[in-house]
Automatic annotation (TrEMBL):
The keyword Glycoprotein does not apply. GO terms for biological process: methylation. GO terms for molecular function: methyltransferase activity. This is SAM-dependent methyltransferase. InterPro entries: SAM-dependent_MTases_sf, SAM_dep_MeTrfase_SAV2177_type. Keywords: Methyltransferase, Transferase.
Length: 271
């Protein structure tokens, strides 16, 4: 996949390979995807029809967490890793609503994100988008454009929202989180959401099979594996929970459904 942008438009070149960013765009009813991405999305939806609802829960918790951290905890810097294609209410819009001076850097491996992000952000001095691979966290931490915007001697919110399941076990996602945790200042926050392997849901394991075979990534990990990402940090209440249950602003009437429980997440502070 490659992308080219001019001042007025973004041209995406299709090489017939699905990407996580574009499959997620299908789930969010966006328009930046191809037939090959729709095929993966449809195969996933066949196994778990709630996936569009789940994607919406993932965006909704992002809005609640970023608002909370910017408005209540005084966080002024956000490093959004695996940020995805721009969609409704992006991190910079939510953070800068609470604090117009908040700085946001979007990082994604997929060049389509950079192409769309540049077009969207050309007038925003406090926001950048870069292409980098989280599997090499030092590349991200040392990137000149990241350092032009983020002061790592001060607290930062590191966002790993819906991305760590796109790293394989041998790529050591927990080790990557540790590298990031050790690099940031005390008082920093980690905001992480993930697919969750549920013992009472064969669909959660079946979805992993579909994603690994058709997309090449999509590990659905156990609650214990996901808890390890937060090791050495202090979880904010209510802890690691199904996404709609993290400080909901509307009542969740039925918390037993797969749509509510398949993705879990939390926010932790490095002390
Ligand atoms: N964070 C956004 C959200 O939750 O709404 C988007 C999540 S999307 C499901 C996952 C994103 O992670 C995709 O845009 C994909 O390109 C990106 N990604 C996957 N592997 C990556 C890697 N190794 N480095 C950086 N980004 C990666």
């Amino acid at each position: 996949m490659s992308a080219e942008s001019t001042e007025s438009e973004v041209v995406i070149l299709d090489d017939g390979v699905p990407t996580a960013a574009r499959v997620y765009d299908v789930m969010l009813d966006g328009k930046d995807h191809y037939e090959i991405d729709r095929q993966v999305a449809n195969a996933s939806l066949e196994v778990m029809p709630e996936l569009k609802e789940i994607a919406a829960h993932n965006r909704a918790i992002l809005h609640r967490v970023v608002t909370h951290l910017a408005a209540e905890e005084g966080v002024t810097q956000f490093l959004d890793l695996g940020s995805g294609l721009p969609t409704a209410r992006n991190t910079h819009e939510v953070a800068q609503e609470a604090n117009p001076d908040a700085k946001v850097v979007y990082v994604d491996i997929d060049p389509i994100v950079l192409a769309h992000g540049r077009a969207l952000l050309q007038d925003n001095d406090n926001t950048r988008v870069i292409t980098a691979d989280l599997r090499n966290p030092r590349e991200v931490l040392d990137h000149p454009e990241v350092n032009a915007m983020i002061d790592f001697s001060k607290p930062v919110c590191v966002m790993l929202v819906g991305i760590l399941h796109h790293l394989l076990d041998e790529e050591d996602p927990a080790g990557i989180v540790r590298t990031l945790r050790d690099a940031v200042a005390p008082g920093s926050y980690f905001f992480i959401t993930n697919f969750t392997r549920l013992s009472d849901s064969p669909e959660s394991a079946q979805l992993e099979e579909v994603l690994l075979s058709q997309l090449g990534t999509g590990r659905v990990r156990t609650p214990a594996e996901l808890a390890a990402y937060f090791e050495g940090m202090e979880l904010l209440p209510p802890g690691i929970v199904p996404l709609p249950l993290w400080r909901p602003d509307t009542i969740v009437t039925d918390a037993t459904t797969i749509g509510v429980r398949f993705m879990t997440g939390g926010v932790a502070r490095k002390n």
